[in-house]
Amino acid sequence: SSDLGHDLVLTARRTTPMEALATELGAQGATVAVIAADLLKPGAAATLAAELDRRQLAVDVLVNNAGLGAGGPFHESDPARVNAMLQVNVVALTEITRALLPGMVGRGRGRVLFVASTAAFQPGPSMAVYCASKAFVLSFGEAIGYELRGTGVTVTTLCPGPTWTEFTDGANTGKSVLFTGPMANVMSPAEVARQGYRALAAGKRVHVVGLTNKLVAVSGRFSPRMLSLPVTSAILKPGK
Questions:
Q1: Nearest-CA neighbor of 61 among 26, 120, 3, 113?
Q2: Helix axes of 93-107 and 44-54: crossing angle, nearest 10 degrees
């Protein structure tokens, strides 16, 4: 937010919502650049990085928030949707980070935030590709965060649990036990963003949002697969 002294670059497929947000943030004193980018398209991250260079915009804080999901058995999944998930969740995230990180290291300061998920901590039957993509994000974030110690640049991987966003509709997960069950701990995007920003500012390596989600993450990481797979499958199975 502008009270923390950041000017912003907003990037997404649709410019209209971003333009509205830019106006709102501009009223609070932030300078906001809007750049349309469809991270589904191969090479989009390189195009975005080139446009930042063209505008002479040096990025000190990178928030990798774009993500796609899909539910259902993998063998019945839409190959185009699977491709899109890998392109956005894994490839574009890796490419834009690779493009912007050297500048941060060169300047001796920078912050990177990856938005992973509690899904990163265990395999997810019914959301196999999504969970695997988030496991990539978590592993990648922890590794490069360690590489960068002493450079003035930190990498924070944020792992929210269920959160009500447009993603929920796109991934068709809103009716699963994850969102509707007795243990469901669905959070607002604003609260997740607040916690994410605090973790980023503090340079934390990994931050799991919410106590229930921390317990889920720890149990997912250390439970034998013969126990965790049936439980995860039941939680993630698309609702009727």
A1: 113
A2: 30
Cα(199)–Cα(164) distance, rounded to whole angstroms?
A: 21
Residue 107 token pair? 């300047």
Pairing of strands 153-159, 110-115: parallel
Contacts of 192 (CB under 8 A, 6+ apart): 158, 160, 163, 209
**Annotation marks residue 197 as catalytic:** no
Catalytic residue (one of 95, 111, 114, 130) = 130
Whether 157 contacts 138, CB under 8 Å: yes
User: What's the CA gap between 187 and 118, in Å, rounded?
Assistant: 13
Query: Per residue in 123-176, pLDDT tens?
Result: 899 999 999 999 999 999 999 999 999 999 999 999 998 776 555 555 555 554
Interatomic CA distance for residues 185 and 96, integer angstroms: 32
**Amino acid occupying residue 38:** D
* C-alpha neighbours within 13 Å on the C-beta side of residue 20: 3
The 110-115 sheet, strands edge to edge: 61-64, 110-115, 153-159, 206-208
CB 103 within 8 A of CB 62: no
CB count, 10 Å around CB of 166? Answer: 8
Cα gap 48→42, rounded to integer Å:
12
Overall residue count recorded for the chain in this entry? 240
Query: pLDDT digits over 37-56, tens only?
Result: 999 999 999 999 999 999 99
- Cα–Cα distances (Å) from 229 to 76, 169, 237, in that order, read 19, 24, 12
According to DSSP, the residues that pair with 153 across neighbouring strands are: 110
